Write the structure tokens for this entry.
Amino acid sequence: MPQPDSIRGSLDDLKRPFVKLSVSGFPEPVTALIDTGFNGSLIIDRYQAERMGLQITIQHSVSAVLASQQPEVFHLSRGRISWLGEEPFISPLVIRETEQERLARRRRKTQEEIILGVELLLNCKLEIDFQAKSVIVTRLR
């Protein structure tokens, strides 16, 4: 089944851009926060990585400083995802957390959520209309 060349989304009440992604392993689309301050592909949790069929490398980790200026350590993962009609090989960051931390974080969420970074947007045009509260990501040919 061909994938679309664009994805439409919206801004939430805090003016953050979100899109819905069809992700293998999930029956419903997954909500992705577009974070142009993150230059990787995705930030996901271990549960999401496993459901997406990604290979997680726990013996290797990477440190990052978040926008909140808090240091964070992530596991690395790798695999392919379906993205705007293509299947790029990506290395998402996987949140390092205990099962209790994961359950507490998931209780605060109303839906499945991931962070989408600039790596997936490199060959795209990102349009955000703050007045209309709309987001469009279009793959450039």
